[in-house]
Description:
Number of strands of chain B: 0
Number of helices of chain B: 3
CATH topology of chain B: Helix Hairpins
Strand content of chain B: under 5%
Order of helices and strands of chain B: HHH
Strand order of the largest sheet of chain A: 1-2
Largest sheet of chain B: none
Shape of chain A: globular
CATH class of chain B: Mainly Alpha
Distance between the termini of chain A: 31 Å
Radius of gyration of chain A: 22 Å
Oligomer: heterodimer
Helix content of chain A: over 70%
Shape of chain B: elongated
Structural class of chain B: mainly alpha
Number of helices of chain A: 20
Structural class of chain A: mainly alpha
Amino acid sequence: MFQVPSLSDLNVAAALPAVVLALGACVFLVVDLFVPRERKHITAWLTAGGLSVSLVLALLSLTDVVTFGDGEEAFFGMYIADQFTDMVNVIVLVTSLLGVMVAYNYLDRTNMQRGEYYYLLLFTTAGVMFMGAAGDLVVVFVALELLSIPLYILTGFRRPQEQSEESAMKYFLLGAFSSAFLVYGLALVYGATGTSNLREIWQAVDSMVAGDTSAQFLLLTGAGLSLVGLGFKVAAVPFHMWTPDVYQGAPTSVVAYMSVAAKVGGFAALLRVLVAGMPNFMLDNGTSAAWMDVTWLLAAATMIVGNFIAIVQSDLKRLLAYSSIAHAGYILIGVAAAGVPRVADEATQAVLIYLMAYAFTNVGAFSVIIAVERDDASNTGLSSMRGLARTQPLLAAAMAVFMLSLTGIPLTAGFVGKWFVFKAAIAADLIPVAVIGVLTSVLSAYYYLRIVWMMYFEDGDGEAATPRPLAWAIGISAIGTLVFGFLPYLLSDMAREITLAFGG
Amino acid sequence: MEASEVSIELYVLLSAILFIMGTMGVLLRRNAILIFMSVELMLNAANLALAAFARQWGNGDGHVMVFFVMTVAAAEVAVGLALIVAIFRTKKSIDIDDLHLFRG
C-alpha cells in the first residue's frame, strides 16, 4: 500500500537552507513579473535578502548553534545534511551574495538590468547546494543540471553581443557533452552496484567480491566517466578548453560568480561520488582507492598547463581563466589525497578550506576587473592595470591582496588553502604532486606579481569606477582574504568536524 | 533466465556503441544542431544502459533515473535551441567553425 510521506518523514527541516533558497527563487520568479522594468533593483535586493536568510541558516547549522531536522538524512537518503553540506552552503552563498553585489551596477551600465539575472543566479546557487548535499546519484545529476542550465543562459546574457553569445554556445555544447559523460558514468556505477543511493553504493563496493571482475570493470569505467564529466565542470586539464573562451566572452559579473560556484559544485559532487561513495574501491587489495592515481595525474597536468599558458596571456579575464584552471589543479590534489582512507577526512577538509579561500580571492579579483571594464566590455587587457595605484590606491591595494592570495603568499587566504592541500598530499604520500604544486605556485608568481608591478610602477590612465555595491564586494573580499590569511584557525575550525565517511 | 530473453551484455554493448557514436558525432560534426543531437544520443545511450541494469537488478532506481534524465534533457533542449536561434540571428550561421572570436 502506498502511503504519502509526511513532511516529518521527509525530514524537510534538515534541508532548510537549500529549501528556503530554492523556494525563494521560485517565488522571486513570479514576483519579478510585477516589478516594473526600470526598477529591477528591487529584485536584486530581494535576491540578496533571500541569500542572506539562507546564509544565516547555513551558518547556524555549520556552527551547531541550531540543529535543523531530525538526523542527517532528508528525503529518504536523497539529501545529506551534514557538516560538509553546511560548509559548501556557506561558501556558495557568500559567493552568490558577492555575485549579486558586483552585478548590481554592472548590469545597469551595460543595459542588462533584467530580473532574470537574479533568479537564474539563485537557481544556480540552489544547484550547487543540492550537489554538496547529494546522497543519491539522481540528485548528483539533477543538481548538476540545475547548476549548469542557468549558467548557460547567464553566459549569453549580454545578447545580442557576439562574444557573449559565442561563449554561451561553446559553454552549452561542451557542458551538455560533459553531462552526457556524467550520466553514462553514473549509469555504469548503478550497473555495478545495483543501487543509486551513495550509502548503499558504499556498502555494495565494500562487499564486492575481489574476483568479480565484471562488476569492478563497470565501476572503474563508471568512476572514470563521472570524473570526466565533473572534470569538465571544474575545468581540469584535458577538459579545460572551454574555460578561457567562456570566461573572456561572458559578462564579467557572471564570470566572477561562476568561476567559483561551478567549481564548488563540481568538487562537492566529485567528493560525494568518489570519497563518500567509493573510498573502499580498491583493486589488487591496494591501500588507496582505484580512482586516486588518475586523479593526481589530472591534478598535475592541470597545474602545469594552467600556469604555463597563463604566463603568455594579455587579457585579464583570459589570464584569470587559466589561473582558475591552475587552481582546479591544486584542489584536485586534495581530492586525490582523499583516496587514501586514513587521510580522507583531512583531505576533504583541505579542499573545502581551499574553496572558501578561493571564493573570496577570485570573486574579488574579478570585481576589480569589473571596476576597470568599460561599458562596451573593452579595457580588460593587462595594460588596464597600469597606473591604477595612482588613480585608485584602495582598488589597487585590494587587487594586490587578491594577486598575492592567488599566488599563495603567506598571510593571505590563498596560502592557507595551499598549505592544507599540500599537507594532505604529503600525508597521503603524494609527495611528487605536492612538489609540482609548490613549483607551479612559484611560477604563477610571475604573472600575478606582474599585475601588481604594473599597478604600482608603470604609468597609465588607471581608469576605474567603483560605485557602491561593487566597492562593498571588493572590500568584503579583500577583508575576507586577509582575515583568513592572518587567522587561519577560523577556517580550520570551521572544517574540523567534516567527514564524508558513512558511519558503521 | 528463459532462452528467448536477450542477455544484459547485449543491451550494455548496444548502449556503449550508441554512446561512442554520439561522442564521435560531437567531435566530428561542425553543425551546432547535429552536435546537439549527438549529445542527445549519448544521453539516450545512458538511458538504455540504465533501463537494462534496472531489469538486471530488479529494482526501480534505474527507471527513476531514466525519467530524470529525460526531463532534464528536455530542459536542456529548450535552452540549447534558444541559444542556437540567438546565435543564428547575429551570425547567420550555426557552424561551430565560425565561432572564432577568441584567440590565445
